[in-house]
Amino acid sequence: MINSFEGKYAFLSNFYEHPISEGSLTFPTNEHYFQAMKTLDLTERIAIARAGTPGQSKRMGRSVKLRSDWEDVKLSVMETALRLKFADPELAAMLKATGDEELVEGNWWNDTYWGVCNGVGQNHLGKLLMKIRAEL
Q1: Which of 75, 79, 77, 99 is nearest to 87 (CA)?
Q2: Would you say the C-alpha torsion 127, 131, 134, 136 has a positive or negative sign?
Q3: Neighbours of 99 (CB within 10 A)
């Protein structure tokens, strides 16, 4: 099991610096992309894309005008972000190199939707990563 997206496995993290583009916007990390997609307001999306760090983009995402369908689309938005990221052949090879290991976004910040904290969580990020790895 890989249960920490740090060090050798930092590339699995949404905070990993690897630009992805959609339309005319480029996002420095998957976190920037994901937070920007929470809103349909182009001005807010651009501001998030320009945030200096993934942490800043995450904080900005907490105060945007949330799109009405967010709860229905957030999993597919994350999957799109991951597909854009792992379209890079080098990152795809790194993901494939994790073999059959279970990927768990272990965390200490109590994110039990995308990851697992203290043994509790749905691990949606890990599940999406494993889905994409299987397809590669």
Answers
A1: 79
A2: negative
A3: 7
Question: Considering the chain, what is the average pLDDT of its residues?
Answer: 97
Instruction: Tell me the three state secondary structure of residue 115.
Output: coil
> pTM of this prediction?
0.95
How many whole angstroms separate alpha carbon 48 and alpha carbon 15?
Answer: 14
- Residue % of the chain over a pLDDT of 70: 100
pLDDT at 66: 98
Residue 125 vs residues 50, 63, 106: alpha-carbon distances, Å: 24, 22, 10
Measured from the Cβ of residue 127, the count of other Cβ atoms closer than 10 Å reads 17
Report the length, in residues, of the chain: 136
How far apart are alpha carbons 45 and 38 in whole angstroms?
8
Q: Coil, strand or helix: which one is 36?
A: helix
- The answer to whether 43 and 15 have CB atoms below 8 angstroms apart is no
The model's pLDDT over 82-127, given as tens digits with 9 standing for 90+, comes to 999 999 999 999 999 999 999 999 999 999 999 999 999 999 999 9
